[in-house]
Amino acid sequence: MKLGVIPGDGIGIDVTAEALRVLDAVLPGVEKIDYDLGAARYLRTGEILPDSVLHEVRGHDAILLGAIGDPSVPPGVLERDLLLRLRFELDHYVNLRPAKLYPGVATPLGGAPEIDFVVYREGTEGPYTGNGGVLRRATPNEVATEVSVNTAFGVERVVRAAFRKAQSREKKRLTLVHKTNVLKFAGGLWQRTVDAVGAEFPEVTVDYNHVDAVMIHLVTHPERYDVIVTDNLFGDIVTDLAAAVCGGIGLAASANLNPDRQSPSMFEPVHGSAPDIAGQDKADPTAAVLSVALMLDHLGEAEAAAKIESVVRDDLAKRDPENPGGTREIGERLAAAAAA
Amino acid sequence: MKLGVIPGDGIGIDVTAEALRVLDAVLPGVEKIDYDLGAARYLRTGEILPDSVLHEVRGHDAILLGAIGDPSVPPGVLERDLLLRLRFELDHYVNLRPAKLYPGVATPLGGAPEIDFVVYREGTEGPYTGNGGVLRRATPNEVATEVSVNTAFGVERVVRAAFRKAQSREKKRLTLVHKTNVLKFAGGLWQRTVDAVGAEFPEVTVDYNHVDAVMIHLVTHPERYDVIVTDNLFGDIVTDLAAAVCGGIGLAASANLNPDRQSPSMFEPVHGSAPDIAGQDKADPTAAVLSVALMLDHLGEAEAAAKIESVVRDDLAKRDPENPGGTREIGERLAAAAAA
Ligand SMILES: CC(C)[C@H](C(=O)O)[C@@H](O)C(=O)O
Ligand SMILES: CC(C)[C@H](C(=O)O)[C@@H](O)C(=O)O
């Protein structure tokens, strides 16, 4: 197994080291190729994602990414030309983000609601395509547009993947999240696709929620969700709220999948590079570690993946919320437990 | 003062009756013209918003709206051709939504965080313009687009209104909410506009948050916000989460303002028509009542507005959360207190 590693910027570097430590503990001998991509390289050389690197990365089995972004680079440049470019070039059409409240983890909602759902966020279209433009820039008559592009091809494949997942789960519930009452063109395509694909999955109960209603449900009745399928932008928004109610962004893992395996999938914590705490042994590496579990699962190493998840679950149940330990300490604790 | 009243559908009818009861108690003698618009009229006559009605309504001082939408009408039809059409035709470019956690109100977050901010949601552009289209509908090659249209004219006027508001408040903080790292065309216009207008308001502290980060902050540190300015769709999403953390959609008021007074402004609770509980004396009319307070404030009746807010505040502090009373009982209680 050949793994491309892109620690990236800020705490991305800190948490990736620990994620690899746990990987080595649970599955020794994975070959890792490190890529120096992110703010430092950009500032040094002007390069963001050279074609040669992209070409090389295509040959690997998977990519582990830390986080991208630094205040010394204009906002959006690295996000778009590195992170989003990887997702688009490698056709990561399923951005999978589990939302699970582990026992013992404090949620801002208080109590211990049963939260255990997965979001299938479309990863290669919608408002993320970069379509749009600016007319009469910086004049009183400026017009700026953003075009959300949605294709039957793109919507159908993520919807089908979400239905397959729903079919495999106990509750077998799928909720389409959109804003069909306003965005009637894209909304129509999404709704018709869910209706059509749903007919092939008669055991799955299908539901629809407007994205604004999801805001309310996620803080009042998060247990109602099982599998959510949604577009790229709504998925971005909904998964951060989901992470927040599941104890915070320090625990939220994600997978950028090409389920057809025509290119390597990419695994990354949902959190950003948090430059304010970078290199200070403060970041929680748990989200990165759980992203390794998603990776192993995708690569057919179900046992190793389950081992990591159970080790994390045990650790979270025992953690002192006031004093969970530093980045390295948590990583070493998880690695030791995973090796045992 | 001449008030156009559109109770609309479902619980819109229930709560509007109580909102008017409180209005009469605090400011007797307002002339009211009732409009039969919504699902019932549409199903009876096929009409949604006849031009003659729109023309008449333009002549009033303000509009009070209950809620729009019914399962017997295809989703989106009434929302777009009645509610959104009113907002667009009457040029309601500020959709103002206060988020305040009143003493004694239970928040799903637990505890009693200090939440007191206002959202200035743009109301006449963005992804709500209906721009976009469908190509090769219902074929495997379908392409559906949605175009977010943002103009310097449209962005500047809502940003300026938000800065004026921030300037008048104690904390004098303004946060732009967008997704500039992905939506670079629209994001650029919004960010440059905030920078330029901000230069005229040196006392206001300006901040920026990505919409996904707001999801986290609103459930962990909602007290950080004072005035939020954002686009039509992000505003829709953020204000429902804000309502949820402030005790629920039953308390969230909103104003669709034309601050230049070239057309009547429109006041409505944030909640929908909730057909499942319509006509059952179950809906909380408080959001509609608070919308009347926003209306009176806009119309220069600051004292009457303050009276309603203080009566609501007192009532909320004393309410039994398990048994707040029915729609009518709450309305009568508030009206009696307002008349005293
Ligand atoms: C950094 C940004 C481009 C990215 C996104 O919007 O997808 C991030 O928020 C995420 O959710 O992975
Ligand atoms: C009903 C719908 C069109 C409307 C909107 O999206 O603006 C509603 O959600 C709101 O927030 O007032």
TrEMBL record, chains A, B:
NAD(+) binds at residues 272-284. GO terms for biological process: L-leucine biosynthetic process. It is an enzyme of class 1 (oxidoreductase). It is found in: Cytoplasm. Its EC number is 1.1.1.85. Binds 1 Mg(2+) or Mn(2+) ion per subunit. Mg(2+) binds at residues 212, 236, 240. GO terms for molecular function: 3-isopropylmalate dehydrogenase activity; magnesium ion binding; NAD binding. Pfam families: Iso_dh (PF00180). The keyword DNA repair does not apply. Keywords: Amino-acid biosynthesis, Branched-chain amino acid biosynthesis, Cytoplasm, Leucine biosynthesis, Magnesium, Manganese, Metal-binding, NAD, Oxidoreductase. Residues 316-340 are annotated as: Disordered. Its main location: cytoplasm. InterPro entries: ICDH/IPMDH (IPR050501), IsoCit/isopropylmalate_DH_CS (IPR019818), IsoPropMal-DH-like_dom (IPR024084), LeuB_actb (IPR023698). It catalyses: (2R,3S)-3-isopropylmalate + NAD(+) = 4-methyl-2-oxopentanoate + CO2 + NADH. Its cofactor is Mn(2+); Mg(2+). GO terms for cellular component: cytoplasm. Homodimer. Belongs to the isocitrate and isopropylmalate dehydrogenases family. LeuB type 2 subfamily. This is 3-isopropylmalate dehydrogenase. It comes from Amycolatopsis pithecellobii.
